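Side project, low priority. Logging it here so it doesn't get lost.
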Amino acid sequence: MAEVSCERCADLLGEWAEGALAAPERDALEAHIASCIPCAALARDYWSVSAFVRRLTDVELPPDAQARLRERSATFLRRKR
């Protein structure tokens, strides 16, 4: 997979936090996170929220909530630039 942009990173974080990315995409995303401080912070926050939600309930975050979180993440990244 090609290099991951900050915007693409925000799009992939939900699937990544759920362990649903294929290896090539996961590896590219994790390489980006390792080299981008804002995306690393966002990934930690995303992972924490996802883990917290899983602990509170045994259900997956609803798709509309996932979409809103991805959109807010993308907005956050655009503002950081």
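Brief comment: The chain is about 80% helix and 0% strand.
Revisit when time allows.
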